[in-house]
Write a structure and sequence with these properties.
Helix content is 47%, strand content 20%. By secondary structure, it is of the alpha+beta class. The protein has two domains: 134 residues, Beta-Lactamase; 165 residues, Reverse transcriptase/Diguanylate cyclase domain (Alpha-Beta Plaits), CATH 3.30.70. GO terms for molecular function: diguanylate cyclase activity.
């Protein structure tokens, strides 16, 4: 063997060695999607040898692959001779390989980015397609965990810690959005505001810890009865507020009466002592006469004031006559 031939054989050998040991997946397909090349990365993660898949249809060898999606990606590569790419945010993986990295063992499978490269013959015609698979599990998990942390921080910033209801700031933002929506659409929504009657007596008689238990008890009743579209919040102290979307005042009254009766018939157990209390409630249906969301709050608050002056443990609805009496 000549020296030149020896060098060429040596080059082919280390190229093949690199091809097999490189830490990315390399798959070469012909135009019929038959597998021509299957490197060591693909063998190690799939458990399938190159001998097992050589000249087999990719979709027959791996029936779990999304053939329609993959061909949408690869067909233009064959036709247009342009590279294509996919990232894990679009599709978590092409080949569903198990994740073996100890650092990211929380991931059930390998997250993958992929590059699709056209391979041409001497005439410049695309005869084959190379798919390069990148393991990006570490990056994906880090991003997912960061998003989860940010999501939780956002939730905490919007949540009242004692009741797990929306806090006043976030709830009022929701009311502002609902007010603007009603202003545009002229639909129906109703605002409900209520609080615990004689709450000071609960605090003075049993202590602030008992008062917190009463607040928490009322919050649990409210959460259990809210519909998916309702937006409840702790407005302040022992006061609560609910946006009843797409609800007129008559149906809002039914909701409010149900809450009032449940509270009246229940009790809080604190240090083996039964504490009973009632609530007063004010309702205000959206009106085009309201100039801003604060007017809507004032209307519901006016109805609450009347419920208090009429004897408490009552539900009252807002009318212009109420507004004049209160003022």
């Amino acid at each position: 063997m000549t020296e030149k031939a020896t060098i060429e054989v040596s080059e082919v050998h280390w190229l093949m060695d690199m091809f097999q040991s490189v830490d990315v997946g390399l798959v070469v397909l012909d135009r019929d999607y038959k597998i021509q090349v299957w490197n060591g990365f693909m063998e190690n993660h799939s458990g399938v040898t190159p001998y097992d898949v050589r000249n087999k249809s990719l979709f027959e060898a791996f029936p779990a692959l999304d053939e329609y999606w993959l061909k949408q990606k690869t067909d233009p590569v064959f036709v247009l001779k342009n590279r294509a790419f996919t990232i894990w945010e679009q599709t978590p993986h092409i080949f569903k390989f198990k994740n073996y990295r100890p650092i990211t063992s929380v991931a059930p499978f390998m997250y993958q980015n992929a590059t699709f490269i056209p391979l041409t013959d001497t005439m410049g015609e695309v005869t084959h397609l190379c798919i390069i698979i990148y393991d990006v599990t570490d990056v994906a998990i880090s991003k997912i965990e960061l998003e989860e942390v940010n999501k939780e921080l956002k939730r905490l910033s919007q949540t009242d810690r004692l009741t797990n209801l929306n806090n006043r700031g976030y709830w009022e933002e929701c009311l502002q959005r609902e007010f603007q929506r009603q202003k545009r659409s002229h639909n129906i929504s109703t605002l409900l505001i209520f609080d615990i009657d004689h709450f000071k007596k609960v605090n003075d008689g049993y202590g602030h810890a008992a008062g917190d238990e009463a607040i928490l008890h009322l919050a649990k009743i409210l959460r259990k009865n809210l519909r998916e579209t309702d937006i409840g919040g702790r407005y302040g102290g022992e006061e609560y507020a609910v946006i009843l979307t797409e609800t007129d005042v008559q149906h809002g009254l039914i909701f409010a009466e149900r809450i009032r009766k449940i509270v009246e018939e229940s009790h809080v157990l604190y240090n083996d002592i039964e504490i009973k209390f009632t609530i007063s409630m004010g309702l205000a249906e959206y009106s085009d006469q309201f100039e801003n969301h604060q007017n809507w709050i004032e209307a519901a608050d006016s109805a609450l004031y009347v419920a208090k002056t009429d004897g408490r443990n009552l539900v009252r609805t807002f009318t212009p006559d109420i507004e004049r009496v209160v003022k």
